[in-house]
């Protein structure tokens, strides 16, 4: 109780934390509520208990190294403070999570959009939520007063251009497209030329998600980067990898692959509402060293939040302490 009620005093903060709580219900129900049973008052603290805690956290996809460090810290604290009651471990765990992650570079939610014209490039395999995320980001940036243009850079998948156009109409932002099958780099080039005449602040560029052939992906992405960089100095300001949280460790391996073929500036973690393995945000930073910038908590344009580590920890542990 104590830890969280102090944290979210302002109304705005409380409402936002509530979104995390609702969105991350599956993870809490499937994994973190079991902590309540394990750490019920009167349970003895022994090796079995530590192992069970470890298993739970690994099930939540928090990342093996993270979990081992965390549980070792617990063992040490129990020994040093001579703790006998399992229930008091709950607060210690949450406190340790805060100590470990708050104020560290696991989070960097600033989008780099201070230039006169900025390009945010969205990459990731098919179905992870790139197009939907672009719609959400467009909505968010427009609320922040930016003039936004979407670019249909996925010229490969049938229907991808139409899907993005429909979102642009719903969100009410500019939209740029060329014919299906066009070279994505030439789409970007023309889009930027057009954006320059329209007073656009931020270009949100969709891309095709083909991982099957790493070589091609690498060539395509580097060509896109080159074209964008030639047209606007310092662009793309962000290359955001979109990852589907429901794919768990597979998402981590996608992240590693993309990180090899292109320079990523951040991760958008989607579908956190649809998974019991919501600990994945912690594993991403641990394994690829790129910060999670935003998270998706549903399918509507409002279901996107800048990643907030305190609210995230609340989403994980709010039923425990
Ligand atoms: N529940 C949920 N579904 C999402 C989220 N983000 C995207 N989706 C869904 O994931 C599916 C694929 O999204 P899409 O944007 O087409 O993926 P793309 O192939 O990467 O462009 C769609 O049905 C989206 O509604 C999210 O945060 N939560
Ligand atoms: Mg798409």
Strand content: 5-15%
The Cα radius of gyration reads 21 Å
Number of strands: 8
Small-molecule binders here are:
guanosine-5'-diphosphate, magnesium ion
Shape: elongated
> Segments where pLDDT lies below 50 for 5+ residues?
none
pLDDT averaged over residues? 92
Secondary structure tally, helices: 13
Report the major sheet. Answer: 8 strands, mixed
The N- and C-terminal alpha carbons lie at a distance of: 5 Å
Protein structure class:
alpha/beta
Strand order of the largest sheet: 3-2-4-1-5-6-7-8
Helical residue percent band = 40-55%
What is the chain-wise order of helices and strands? HHHHHHEHEHEHEHEHEHEEH
Give a written overview of the molecule.
By secondary structure, the protein is of the alpha/beta class. The protein is built from 13 helices and eight strands. It has helices at residues 2-7, 11-23, 25-38, 47-59, 64-81, 88-101, 130-143, 160-171, 184-196, 214-231, 249-261, 280-288, 309-317; strands at residues 118-123, 148-151, 174-176, 202-205, 238-244, 266-270, 292-296, 304-306. Strands 3-2-4-1-5-6-7-8 form an eight-stranded mixed beta sheet, with helices on both faces. Strand 7 and strand 8 form a beta hairpin. Helix 3 (25-38) runs antiparallel to helix 4. The termini are close together. The relative contact order is 0.19. The mean pLDDT is 92.
């Amino acid at each position: 109780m104590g830890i969280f009620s102090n944290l979210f005093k302002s109304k705005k903060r409380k409402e936002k934390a509530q979104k995390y709580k609702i969105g991350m219900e599956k993870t809490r129900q499937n994994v973190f509520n079991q902590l309540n049973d394990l750490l019920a008052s009167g349970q003895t603290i022994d090796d079995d208990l530590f192992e069970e805690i470890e298993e739970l956290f690994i099930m939540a996809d928090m990342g093996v190294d993270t979990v081992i460090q965390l549980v070792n810290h617990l063992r040490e604290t129990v020994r040093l403070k001579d703790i006998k009651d399992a229930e008091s471990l709950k607060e210690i765990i949450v406190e340790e999570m805060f100590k470990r992650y708050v104020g560290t570079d696991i989070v960097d939610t600033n989008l780099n959009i201070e230039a006169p014209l900025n390009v945010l490039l969205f990459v990731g395999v098919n179905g992870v939520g790139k197009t939907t995320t672009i719609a959400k980001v467009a909505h968010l940036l427009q609320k922040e007063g930016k003039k936004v243009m979407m670019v249909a850079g996925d010229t490969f998948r049938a229907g991808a251009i139409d899907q993005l156009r429909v979102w642009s109409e719903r969100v009410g932002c500019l939209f740029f497209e060329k014919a299906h099958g066009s070279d994505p780099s030439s789409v970007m080039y023309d889009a930027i030329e057009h954006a320059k005449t329209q007073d656009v602040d931020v270009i949100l560029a969709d891309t095709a998600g083909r991982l099957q052939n790493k070589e091609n992906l690498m060539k395509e992405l580097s060509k896109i980067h080159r074209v964008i960089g030639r047209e606007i100095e310092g662009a793309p300001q962000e290359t955001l990898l979109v990852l589907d949280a429901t794919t768990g460790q597979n998402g981590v391996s996608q992240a590693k692959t993309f990180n090899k073929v292109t320079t990523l500036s951040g991760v958008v973690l989607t579908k956190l509402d649809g998974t019991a393995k919501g600990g994945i945000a912690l594993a991403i930073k641990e394994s690829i060293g790129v910060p999670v910038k935003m998270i998706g908590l549903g399918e509507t344009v409002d279901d996107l939040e800048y990643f907030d580590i305190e609210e995230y920890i609340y989403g994980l542990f709010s039923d425990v302490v």
